[in-house]
Amino acid sequence: MASSADSPQKRVLVVDDSKFVRTTFAAILKRSFGVREEADGEAAWQAVETDPSLVMVFTDLEMPQLDGFSLLARIRGSEDARIKALPVVVISGHDEAENKQRAKELGANDFIAKTADAPEVLSRLDNVLRLVRAESSATHDPLTGALTPHYLLVEGRKHYAHARRHGRDLSVAALRLESYEGIARSCGKEVAEVVVARVAKLIMDKVRTEDSVARIAPATFVVVSPGTSGAQMLVVAQRLRRELAEAKVRYHDKTLTFSASHGLSSAGADPASSVEELVRLALQRLSLSPPAAPPKPKATHLPAELERLVRMLESVDTSRLGDAAEQFARRLTKIAASAQARRR
C-alpha cells in the first residue's frame, strides 16, 4: 500500500464517463492520495497539461470527446517529459485481449478491472508508482538548468507553508514562449531548444535568488515567488515579456523574433489552499493573457540648435515655395544621406 509519506499533495487522475466508477475509485484512492476526476478524455488531457501535481492516470478506454486510446497516445507522444512519463493504468470493463494489447502498445503501464476491490487497486497503485519515484528524483531540467516540475512543487510547498504561517503573500507566474512551435517548424527542434535555454537564462537572471523557476513543458516556465504580491509579480512578468519581444536572434538568413504570454495567481488574491492550486490558476490564465505590445521606438533628442531649426522648417507653409519645394526636399535628403554615411 502507498504510504502516507508519499501521498500529501500528490494526486491521481481518474477518468471515466461513469460517475459511479469515478466515485468508487476515488473513494478507494483517497485513502492514500488526492484525487481529481474527469468525465471524458479531452477534459483529462487538459488536466494532464495544466496540473503538475498529477502522478498517475486511471482511465477508461471508451469515453466521449476523446477515448482512452487517444488520451494514451497524447500522453506518450508529448514533448513534455513530465507528461510523457506519467504512469497510466487502464480501467477495463471487459477482459478483451485485443483492447488490452492495443493499450499496451500505446504505453499503458497496467490494467485493472472496474470490479477490483480496494486492496487490489491500492496494490496496483503502489507498484506502478515505483516508476514515478525513479523519474522524480531529478531536481533540475537538463536542458535549461531550471527546476523540474516535481521539485518546483517540493520547493513551492515550503514557500506556501511559510507564507501561511507568517501571513505573507506568495505569487506564481506562468510564462509561455508562444513562438516556440513556429521556430521548431521553420528552424528545427534543436534551434528551438537553444532558444528555450536562452529564455530560461533570461528568466532566472531576472528573478530573485529566493524565487523558484521550473520548466514544466517544452516552452512553459513557472515562477513561484515568496513575499511577492500579485501586482509586483505582474510587473516582473510584463518586463520579461517586453524583453522577449525586443530580443532578436539571427539564424542563417532569418531573424527570429519572440512572443510570450503570461498567467498570474497569488495567495493574497486567489482562494487557493495549496501551491498546486496557485500553479494551476496561473497556467489556466496563460490563454487569457493579451499579446505583448511591440516595443516602442526609443526617443531621440536633437541638439538645441537643430531642434529649433527643425521646428522652424516644420512651421513653413510649403505651398508658398512653389517650384523650389522639390529642390528644397532634395537638399534635405542629401544632408540626411551624408550624415548617415559618416555614422558608418
Helix fraction bin: 40-55%
What is the annotated CATH architecture of the largest domain? 2-Layer Sandwich
What is the strand tally? Answer: 11
How many domains make up the coordinates? 2
Percent strand: 15-25%
Mean pLDDT: 81
Number of helices: 13
Major β-sheet annotation: 5 strands, parallel
- Predict the CATH topology of the largest domain: Alpha-Beta Plaits
Low-confidence stretches: 1-8, 291-299
* Strand arrangement across the biggest beta sheet: 2-1-3-4-5
Based on secondary structure, the structural category is alpha/beta
Going by CATH, the homologous superfamily of the largest domain would be Reverse transcriptase/Diguanylate cyclase domain
Span of the ends, CA to CA: 74 Å
CATH class of the largest domain: Alpha Beta
For the CA atoms, what is the radius of gyration? 28 Å
Encode the helix/strand succession as letters: EHEHEHHEHEHHEHHEEHEEEHHH
Q: What characteristic shape results from the CA principal axes?
A: elongated
